[in-house]
Protein: NAD(P)-dependent dehydrogenase (Short-subunit alcohol dehydrogenase family)
Organism: Actibacterium naphthalenivorans
Amino acid sequence: MGKGEFDGKVVLVTGAASGLGRAASLRFAAEGAKLCLVDLNDEGLAETARRISGAGGESVTYAGDLGDQAHCAAAVARAIEGFGRLDVLCNVAGILRFHALADVTPDVWERLFSANVTGPFFMIQAAMPHLVKTEGNIVNVVSTAAFLGQAYTAPYAATKSALLSLTKSLAMEFMHSPVRINALAPGGMMTEMIQTLQFPADADPSLIARYTGIRPPSQPDDIVEPLMFLTSDRGRSVHGACLSADNGITSG
């Protein structure tokens, strides 16, 4: 690959096996970055790595459950072992489930928080010493659910609000550091995860309509653009912010 905006940079992307994580990984590679691809789905990781290699890029992979602190540390270690540095951490991995209140079990609650909050937190903890050295940056992918009450997604929305608060709190903690920490809040995206989701059988369509938006959902490539801005030198003045890319869902 030729030189691009991320030439010489090393980028770790969680959720890289599909959807936004895969789209972002391919774009980072096209812009010259070396990638550490992280996901629970090893087959999807292999496919993303194959596409990067086929286009002349370089990547390493790590498959593991990021709800486990040890896996987070190992994922970051894989990036360092592979390329000797880390410049960008993109916490894209996450899960979405729709449930009526009465149907939320402890396992559902704990799984959502493990994937959507615990994983990003311990990825940041493991990556931070390396990002300080490279004056790098972090982007946490949240959601419009961090700002709007959304029927049938109470646990998911709680995780995304928590991740947004985590982003801002760590941005303050590292205010005197060269590291930048931001969030990106997409609306609906046409990903495999969204296409296979099901609402509760007795869900009220009028409540769902309040947060699905008037404009069509985005494609993952559409959301890659603001992600590239936040993680690039073009976004060097942006710290502790959340950029919405939701086709107007949160505008009114």
The chain has one domain: 10-237. The chain has a mean pLDDT of 93.
